[in-house]
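Researcher: I'm preparing a figure for a lab meeting and need a structural model of a single chain. I don't have an experimental structure, so a prediction will have to do for now. The sequence is pasted below. Please return the structure as tokens so I can convert it later.
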Amino acid sequence: MPPTTALLVIDMQNTTVAMAHRAAETVAAIARLSERARAAGVPVVTVRQQDAGMVPGTEGWRVVPELAPREGEPVVDKTTPDSFLGTDLDAVLTARGVTEVIVTGFATEVCVDTTARQALSRGYDLVVVADGHTTSVRTGADTDLVPADRSIAQYNAIYRTIGWPGRRIRVRAAADVDLGAPEGARNVRPA
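Model: Understood. Here is the structure written out token by token.
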């Protein structure tokens, strides 16, 4: 049976995008993928972070205009890096019969990675959009952090090689994400 897919757009809010590495390129890649998803009837689910720096209703909390949810599209608000924890994301996906999530957003090594792994643990197949996730710009004060380009590349490599029994995991550029018929060859790693 072909997977029923949903696109997750995680934390692409004004505050996070303002600090993002390659922000314009990442927003553009996600925006093009979102338009393709909508045209193919694939649900686009927007996930928004709420915390002391991103208070609901403020400009910093709002999703960037290029990625703003359309009327009637699901929006999930969260308070942790895990888009499933304490939210209705699982219920939103289940109600739509989703079996596979396409993950995009900010920040690669925090909310994107946590949500991707939780999706796998909850039984969803996974597509990580290689050019559709980003992390913060690294400054001199961030000397212990891996440079942003290397962090993004590392997480793409992890998801290309990670094994998760019974799950399909793929890493694709936004332009190469197949939103139609399922791909013939899946990257399924044995248990």
